[in-house]
Amino acid sequence: MPLRLPDKLPAIELLKKENIFVMDDSRAHMQDIRPLRIAILNLMPLKITTETDLIRLLSNTPLQLEINFMKLKSHTPKNTPIEHMMMFYRDFEEMRREKYDGMIITGAPVETMDFEDVTYWDEMKAIFDWARTHVTSTLYICWAAQAGLYYYYGVPKYQLEKKMFGVFEQTPLEPQLPIFRGFDDVFQMPHSRHTEVHREDIVARPELTLIAESPDSGVSIVMARGGREFFITGHLEYAPNTLDNEYRRDKDVRDDVELPKHYYRDDNPDNKPLVSWRAHANLLYSNWINYYVYQETPYDINQIK
Q: How many angstroms separate the Cα of 13 from the Cα of each of 16, 84, 86?
């Protein structure tokens, strides 16, 4: 089944070129079916890139999904045209009376700041509270994962000596969980961050279950509330060239930028990246939609609580 997306969203044409079936709202309204409603709070600077990355992964399911993009009223993005935000995004205040089967909250370029110093922290706290009663299952990615773990469970974040940058091998610690159905004994995940959470802080909280980790990049995926919350410290959603773009952008303005690890063929930035995470990224998002959203959400969406 296709994804239902706002009319004229740039990702539609980009994904059609990849033979991914999407339909706009105008056509979707002709179908008599209750789609799963997914809210995406996109905090990344390059909105259109992140939209496309996430929609690509969400498309790998036979279920029909209706995607709604959320924005913050307390923050105006600098790298996306205001026309795009006005056309495709709605303020949280406009959406807070609605309920959603699933939600994704992305990373944000504020990870080196204390949470309380982030200008939109109060609005984020309101969204975190709202998600607990208005969403069946939520994925928190990178900064959002650290923010959610801090707000809900008091888990602190720690500054790294140098950026965790590259693609790192992860091990599922609870391989019997539905989120890992079809996974191999190890999988790869891109990371790009300056802070981390510590294993001992996670396992000290009985409400949290550490379900994947890496000897190199540390805590990878944490689950809470029986799968109603997943905290993912890396970026399975990244496109093949995302780390390359970050590397070339940063090395043009700083002289301390290291190559992303385990990423370029032969560790040579003149070579193409070796994509080693795509299959498991598709699996994880499909498993999330199937087992933790579709099979758990009520048919009457208003019964979510």
A: 5, 15, 19
Summary mean pLDDT of the chain: 91
75 catalytically annotated: no
Q: Please confirm, yes or no, whether 142 is among the known catalytic residues.
A: yes
Q: Using alpha carbons only, what angle is made at residue 108 by residues 165 and 211, rounded to the nearest 5 degrees? A: 65
Q: Do residues 71 and 96 make contact, with C-beta atoms less than 8 angstroms apart?
A: no
194 in active site: no
CB contact set of 86 (below 8 Å; sequence gap of 6+): none
Residue of 37, 4, 153, 44 whose CA lies nearest to 103: 37
Q: Considering the candidates 111, 134, 191, 235, report the single residue annotated as catalytic.
A: 235
Has this prediction a pTM greater than 0.85?
A: yes
Select which of 66, 134, 142, 191 is catalytic: 142
Residue 100: strand pairing partners: 135
**Continuous segment of H or E residues that includes residue 283:** helix 278-287
Catalytic residue among 111, 213, 229, 237: 237
The Cα-based distances of 1 to 65, 75, 253, 279 in angstroms read 8, 35, 44, 20
The model's pLDDT over 148-203, given as tens digits with 9 standing for 90+, comes to 999 999 999 999 999 999 999 999 999 999 999 999 999 999 999 999 999 999 99
